[in-house]
Design a protein that fits this description.
Length: 181
């Protein structure tokens, strides 16, 4: 299936809560923790959306954390994926995390959605003045490495994750180029 028709929407509680919870449950049931703060989302949606709002508006953020936008991607009415765009880099993100993270729901994988999600998120980065986006991917995450390559990622270096020491590969993507159709 061609994924070029995905619709991007900025996360918004009133528009998205029910579909976002259903989406998150699918990750949880598959035993995946790929969604940032999934435990909080499933246990206390009110707190999750309050925190997401503070990240979106750069308000009362915990020490050392940076502003971040969250985007949802729809194929028709179906929520198929999500991305996070961190609007600047902290020293930790520079090593592990980078500007952009993304995930596709388990039942919608291998249809090209992730490549399209990264392409559109690079477009958002370009619009807010991020000329080069940093992506960090676990060296064992072959699908994600492929997604980064398909979007023009240029390998920079290997680092060790600050979380678990896993080997991470860092790539830079020119956002204007990467976002081109
Ligand atoms: C990584 C992830 C986003 C890929 O999503 P996806 O929509 O299935 O990816 P795509 O369909 O765009 O596929 C991208 C490429 O990876 C390949 N691929 C997908 N799954 C694969 C697998 N299990 N093994 C090897 N290659 C795979 C695809 O064939 C495609 O390459 P191609 O175009 O050369 O055929 C998805 O697996 C996911 O959400 N994983 C958990 C979260 C995660 O790891 N996020 C990335 C953090 S950096």
């Amino acid at each position: 299936m061609n994924a070029s028709g995905l619709r991007i929407e900025r996360l918004n509680r009133s528009a998205h809560e029910a579909r976002f919870l259903e989406f998150a449950r699918e990750f949880h049931e598959a035993g995946e923790e790929a969604l940032d703060k999934i435990d909080l989302l499933l246990s206390d949606p009110e707190d999750y959306f309050d925190l997401a709002d503070r990240f979106e508006h750069d308000r009362d953020l915990p020490e050392g954390l940076v502003p971040m936008s969250r985007f949802l991607f729809f194929d028709g009415d179906t929520l198929v994926g999500q991305s996070n765009l961190r609007r600047r880099l902290s020293p930790l993100l520079h090593r592990d995390g980078g500007h952009i993270g993304y995930a596709v729901r388990p039942t919608a994988r291998r249809r090209g959605h992730a490549s399209e999600i990264l392409r559109q998120t690079l477009g958002e980065a370009s619009q807010i003045g991020i000329a080069r986006a940093l992506l960090t991917v676990a060296a064992t995450n072959l699908p994600s490495l492929r997604v980064v390559e398909q979007n023009g990622g240029v390998f920079d270096a290997e680092t060790a994750s600050h979380r678990d020491g896993a080997i991470m590969q860092r790539y830079w993507i020119e956002t204007a180029t990467g976002a081109a159709p």
